[in-house]
Design brief:
The complex is a heterodimer of chains A (113) and B (114). Chain A has 113 residues and is mostly beta strands. In chain A, 0% of the residues lie in helices and 51% in strands. In chain A, strands 2, 5, 6, 10, 11 and 12 form a six-stranded mixed beta sheet that branches. Chain A is globular, with a radius of gyration of 13 Å. Chain B is mainly β and 114 residues long. Chain B has strands spanning 4-7, 10-13, 19-25, 31-38, 42-51, 54-57, 64-66, 76-78, 87-94, 104-105, 109-113. In chain B, strand 5 and strand 6 form a beta hairpin. The chains are: A mainly beta (113), B mainly beta (114).
Amino acid sequence: AQSVAQPEDQVNVAEGNPLTVKCTYSVSGNPYLFWYVQYPNRGLQFLLKYITGDNLVKGSYGFEAEFNKSQTSFHLKKPSALVSDSALYFCAVRGVGRRALTFGSGTRLQVQP
Amino acid sequence: DAEITQSPRHKITETGRQVTLACHQTWNHNNMFWYRQDLGHGLRLIHYSYGVQDTNKGEVSDGYSVSRSNTEDLPLTLESAASSQTSVYFCASSGGDGMNSPLHFGNGTRLTVT
């Protein structure tokens, strides 16, 4: 079975500071990893994905994520947070042969001005 | 632009009633999914379909059913609504074999069962 853990329910960061939202995963075989963002009363929006290749993946709105196979982690990062980045963030994994995604429980990011 | 539309956006129903939530996508995607979102659980997979006439159960399928008669639509039916099914429901789709493709989500249906 595949699973995703997001250990922090909420992350608080000051505007202009770097941010990290943590994610670890468990899956058989090579993982397909994704990050999504959800704004209030909206569906999930795709931010970035790791399929294979470089361990640092760049995505939308200045976000990037670092894949670490030995630690089974896929942490979301941004060098300088904006107040508008405040939202709910979900990490998701897809195992080989599966088309559905398994999601973590979500991390609420709060960026203070 | 292609999109995925869910209706209604909000629904209140009574325990024991049958409810159908609509999902319509214009991406021409073969893969479609239904998830429910609950606090502390993230999104959990209810049912999914890889094409017309194909349906499969997800991890929380009890009390739900789907049918796929065309590429564009995957309606979700609650056979006899229960208070435990109060949730926000999201439909999603993806193209091709689905492995490299992200899911595209609708804006959700908030269902309250009283």
